[in-house]
Amino acid sequence: MAPTMEDQQMMRGQYRVVVIGSGNWGSVAAKLIASNTIKQPIFYDEVWMWVYEETLHTGEKLSEVINQTNENVKYLPGIKLGNNVIADPDLENAVKEANMLVFVTPHQFVAGICKRLVGKIRPGTEAISLIKGMEVKMEGPFMISKLITDMLGINCCVLMGANIANEIAVEKFSEATVGYRQDKEVAQRWARLFSTPYFLVSIVQDVEGVELCGTLKNVVAIAAGLVDGLDMGNNTKAAIMRIGLREMRAFSKLLFSSVRDSTFFESCGVADLITTCLGGRNRKVSEAFARSGGKRSFDELEAELLQGQKLQGVSTAKEVYEVLSHRGWQGLFPLFTTVHEICIGQLPPSAIVEYSEHTPNFSLVEGSALYY
User: Which intervals hold domain Glycerol-3-phosphate dehydrogenase NAD-dependent N-terminal (predicted)?
Assistant: First the structure.
């Protein structure tokens, strides 16, 4: 029997993947993806990874070392990415054959990257964002997935979850959530690309809910780190996490009425919040900030503690505060407001446990009775 059109497409390796970003999480994403593309015929074997070129202390170029050693020696040392991962410092060249774009860079760089890609990507290309953060424009908050969609004219799903990259790199069990807008088949393809026996991916029709969970939990993690730095203990930290989850849900539903309550019980929601407040980089740097009494800046501590990785929580807290202040919502979100004011030095670290929790007017939010 002659092969069907679908069989022919599968034999050709219909889907070509590029990972845009090569930091800690980007390198782990490339490893996950490469383990699947080599096994599944619908994907082209080779996975391209765009590398923001750096010169290492040895004088070698990072992209060249990755290709020689199959290892990102700066951001994920000791982990083999897969022989089918190809590092490329030329963004336009890296994406030219791809029709599946995986965005995984610090959120503040996305607009500049997309600007460079306008007119350079293939028709019918799909994207997914693993990026936790948002842009704030004059008209209001702008999710990174929407920024990619609007700038490049392509559909963009999101993947978020309780995903500390170094644990996934050594194949400890983890979960993640793909949020999609309309096309379930595309979401299932993304899940197929990422899923492994140790990395289970589910899909949810709620892009904004999934993405906002991944974004806002970093602000709560700053608060959790402050509690750790103040040696306040587990009861206080649990209270901060509960208040934070409440504010995450309320903020998300005020911005997007389509956000589903059930999303907050997926990996992207409560699970990501827990793991980030227990072990993420935002918690780590925030703890050091509190132990210094707020005398050392977050920028200084980021440079000292993260070896080139970027902190997202402080910038996200600023962006969230811009939305709150513009809409007069500070009183509804005392935790989010306090975190930002501590980050900019307006309040001391101890303010995180000193503020009086107001009774917010959650009647603005559908289903608010769940809060009381």
Answer: 17-184
Q: In the block, which residue shows the tokens 């994406």?
A: 95
Q: Are residues 168 and 297 in the same domain?
A: no
| Cα(18)–Cα(120) distance, integer angstroms | 13
Containing structural domain, residue 306: 209-371
Contact yes or no for 248/217 (Cβ under 8 A): yes
**321 in Cβ contact with 226 (< 8 Å):** no
280 annotated binding-site participant? no
Secondary structure class of 262 (helix, strand, coil): helix
Amino acid at 326: H
Say how far apart CA 200 and CA 278 lie, in whole Å. Answer: 21
CB contact at 8 A, 240 and 223: yes
Q: Rounded CA gap, 94 and 368, in Å? A: 47
246 and 166 together in one domain: no
Q: Does 21 appear as a known binding residue?
A: yes
pLDDT class for 365, splitting at 50, 70, 90?
A: very low
Do 279 and 190 lie in one domain? The reply is: no
How many folded domains does the chain comprise? 2
Specify whether 179 is located in the same domain as 213. no
Residues 106-131: tens digit of each pLDDT: 888 999 999 999 999 999 999 999 99
Helix (H) or strand (E) segment spanning residue 146: helix 144-152
184 is in an annotated binding site: no
Residue 257 assigned ligand-binding role: no
Report the half-sphere exposure of 39 (CA within 13 A, side-chain side).
11
Last residue of a domain, one of 146, 170, 205: 205
30 is annotated as contributing to ligand binding: no
**pLDDT, position 40:** 95
Nearest partner of 281 among 202, 165, 359, judged by Cα:
165
- Same domain (yes/no): 193, 250: no
Q: What is the CATH number of the domain that holds 167?
A: 3.40.50.720
Do 342 and 283 share a structural domain? yes
Helix (H, G, I), strand (E, B) or coil at 245: helix
CATH number for the domain harbouring residue 253: 1.10.1040.10
pLDDT, residue 309, reads 73
Q: Which residues are catalytic?
A: 217
What's the whole-model pTM score? 0.88
Distance of CA 137 to the CA centre of its chain: 20
